[in-house]
């Protein structure tokens, strides 16, 4: 409901601004005797509105007070010294200029509210999202939730659980050799390669999107994880010779390491990831 009110306020303010601008321009064009003066006053009104839009309503109010005082003094001088009669011309700008400022402030306030709501939704989406948008894989948040459950099951039923971590070797160098679109496509291809190397009851995660890092929770021990690593290396070699070299004109090399879960040394899912990443240094 709050978002609808902000949107409605923005729409109303926009229509009001359009209306008062139309009235001001019609009044300016309809009075040929004071055309130059009206053009100047119209520009002043728009200038105050623009300043209000990019600053605050307080600034707009101060500028309007200065304008009313200045134009009122000018009108008084014209009446007393020159002998002009106070007409609609004088009252119009004394009223319309604050109105234009007020409507501009309404539009500004509504837009800022909408932007704040958008930023909040983006933050909530990032914090609550459990899927990586580029690969449709579960992300690190989902990994922590799943790993907590799997670690408890492993302890309770004595089921071996192993985390296999995969990264692309020389990723920084490769990212400078290919385009951004190719990088995204490469991440997707490697994700599919990893996905086809594990069983249906195992889980694949995208742990890091900046420096692509995949994690696989495998219900197996170290020996079973080594079989998966061997399978991945064979598929990578085949992929390089069949698709990768022709598609990206670079050679793909993966760095892999596996850590079996032991309750006494791994207390949290983050410990699981840290230990697996440490072992990546030994995969040369």
From TrEMBL:
Keywords from the UniProt entry: Membrane, Transmembrane, Transmembrane helix
Transmembrane segments: 12-29, 35-54, 61-79, 91-110
Entry keyword annotation includes Membrane: yes
Keyword Kinase in annotation: no
InterPro entries xref list: Rev_trsase/Diguanyl_cyclase
Alphabetized Gene3D superfamilies for the sequence: 3.30.70.270
Protein's UniProt name: GGDEF domain-containing protein
Protein's organism: Paenibacillus endophyticus
